Fold:
Amino acid sequence: MIRSIVLHILMISLGSQAVADVPISQVLSHIDIATGKSKDVATAFPIQGVVSARSILSDGMVLAYVQPPGAAGVPVLAEATEATGLIPRNEVRLTGSFSPTVLGFDALRVKKASVALIATNKSFGASEPRSAAFFKDASSLAGRYVSLTNVQFVAGKVPGNGRAQVTADGITVNLLVTATLSKREIPNGPVNVFGVPVRLDGGWGLLAARFLPVSGKQAQVLASKHTCFTCHNPDVKAIGPAYRDVAARYKDDPEAVGKLISQMERGGTGKWGAIPMPPLGAKVPIEDRKALAEWIMGYKWDAILAE
Ligand code: HEC
Structure:
């Protein structure tokens, strides 16, 4: 009794830092896979992991997945003001207990002011490619990071509830994007969609984390042939800026592709720092510059989906 009181006082004095993280697999064991409902709504679980996907729901709440690298993640739900650190690739520590989402399943509702940023730009494991047919019952991969390749968006704008649809091989897959996408155009060419399978409208859908152009592989071959990768990495800053950051800066600029083509042609300095980029117009033909610029701007969806 005395021991437990002492322990209690110790925990209060040390605050939440004194509570060890609960492994995400153990937290997930409280969820009924068939219903997405939790059997334990009372316990507050302290967890740590990398954010793989994030979406603003129709009620303004943010749904994100926090996962250990390569394993299934746990859905977390936060007020928009609490969710600024819940951005894909951020490693976070947070505390929450299960409560319902507008989507019907339960998520770990983040306790106020409990989100701590541990690191940025972390990897959360490789995406496993899945066919559209797989989404008839995606329960075996719920919470994992997967990809759906070469799909086409069903034309139009995303409605305010943040749902969109893609088709592949005549099969439609429901996507959960983000309510903020309703004010924007959606990708009009074929894309690869990366994200986390979630229960959606009584079936399974994909919580989208990235849309990348299907031409990514050819573009990477071009970028490597034209020595771009000696100074650039698509995801992290090197001598030159990360392509993800370039696309984020120009995400709302209709002239972006032209500006990037011109940078490759004439070089430039001062936009990202003091190191200049050399002019490459003499070495890189215009059609390759255009393909590279369009591919780089394909990373803008990372920024748009994280808004
Ligand atoms: C020798 C190193 C080097 C090489 C090679 C290089 N870059 Fe760059 N790149 C840079 C640097 C440094 C910057 C930042 C320049 C600045 O601050 O304006 C940059 C900036 C950029 C930008 C941002 C332009 C903007 O308007 O904000 C793009 C896009 C880009 N590079 C694409 C490429 C592509 C594509 C290739 C290959 C064809 C390439 N770079 C090759 C160093 C390089």
In short: The CA atoms of residues 260 and 293 lie 6 Å apart. The radius of gyration is 21 Å.
